[in-house]
Amino acid sequence: MKNVLILSSSPRRGGNSDTLCDEFMQGAIESGHRVEKVFLRDKTIHLHGMRRVQPIQEALSTKDDAAEIIGKMLAADVIVMLCRSISMP
């Protein structure tokens, strides 16, 4: 059994990308894995200071939801990140 973390960056809950995350989650659960999905739109993540690579300790001390997400990522055996595609003209 694996610990699976799904990071959904869909702009809306129930949209195509989020639904794809849910389908993946259902298949992983049916295969006997522990699964958690994080809907990133519900989280507060500050990106200030990200022009340079931050040490993980500094990122964990920021007062937002990044520390929680980083903790989940470190505990996961599998990380699924589904990013919404952007159409370019």
What this model shows, in words?
This protein has 89 residues and is of the alpha/beta class. 35% of the residues lie in helices and 19% in strands. The chain is built from 3 helices and 3 strands; from the N terminus they run E-H-E-H-H-E. The chain has helices at 16-30, 56-61, 66-75; strands at 3-8, 34-39, 78-82. It has a 3-stranded parallel beta sheet, sandwiched between helices. Helix 1 links the parallel strand 1 and strand 2. The radius of gyration is 15 Å and the shape is flat.
Give the SSE order as H and E letters: EHEHHE
Overall mean confidence score, pLDDT = 83
Strand order of the largest sheet: 2-1-3
* Uncertain segments: none
**Fraction of helical residues:** 25-40%
Task: Tally the helices.
Answer: 3
Quick take:
The protein is an alpha/beta fold and 89 residues long. Helix content is 35%, strand content 19%. Helix 1 (16-30) links the parallel strand 1 (3-8) and strand 2.
Secondary structure elements and pairings:
Layout: E1 3-8, H1 16-30, E2 34-39, H2 56-61, H3 66-75, E3 78-82
Parallel strand pairs: 1-2, 1-3
Key terms:
single chain, 89 residues, alpha/beta, three-stranded parallel β-sheet, 3 helices, 3 strands, 19% strand, flat
